Amino acid sequence: MTNEMVERLVIREMIENWVLWRDACQWDKFRSLWHDEGRMMATWTQGTADEFIEMSKQGFAKGVRILHFLGGSTVEVRDTRAIAQTKMTISQRAPVHDILCDVVCTGRFFDFLEKRGGRWGFVLRQPIYEKDRMDPVDPAAKLSLDSQLLSKFPEGYRHLAYLQTQIGYKIKLDMPGLTGPEVEALYAKGERWLAGDSL
User: Fold this and answer.
1) First to last CA, the chain
2) Does residue 115 belong to any structural domain of this protein?
3) Does the residue 152 lie in any domain?
4) Are the CB atoms for 64 and 167 separated by under 8 Å?
5) Is 150 helix (H, G, I), strand (E, B) or coil?
6) pLDDT tens per residue, range 57-108
7) CATH number of the domain residue 168 falls in
8) How many CA atoms lie within 13 A of 193 on its CB side?
9) What region, left, alpha or beta, does residue 195 occupy, with left being phi > 0 and alpha being psi -120 to 50 degrees?
10) Backbone angles phi, psi at 47, to 5 degrees
11) Cα 157-150-171 angle, rounded to 5 deg
């Protein structure tokens, strides 16, 4: 096994640990995956890893439940830098207009990683939101959404954003989707990162 293959396996394990430890609220283990200035971008919060942990703790205490599931992953390593893309789903359950609903959003984690002092760590995690849907937990329930509000959100995460606004979150409106200038800019940023540029 080559050194690069080993590095890719280490990074893949980090990506899996991120989801498992985050969803299980194992915050000390979760924090160990990040470099000190590491940043997390999400529809509902953007900030440092420590800020993300605190916001997640506060949300969990209020009943917010956001879960993740991973699919395939590709990792490109150049020296001490790496970019990883991993297929994923985000699922969240919450009341929408007094009807308990599930939202499932399909996308990718786009990760900027760096090896420092022999240790890989996350420097930036930027999800890409490709498509989503909302379903009442009770299939007999009749759900009616505000079409004007729904249309304000980008196509890739509009139902997720709609649900999150119902529980009080302010939503970031320019996250990258399956296509468009935001995702193209993210790809270019990834290439610059691998070439040695700062974020």
Assistant:
1) 31
2) yes
3) yes
4) yes
5) helix
6) 999 999 999 999 999 999 999 999 999 999 999 999 999 999 999 999 999 9
7) 3.10.450.50
8) 24
9) alpha
10) 170, -165
11) 55
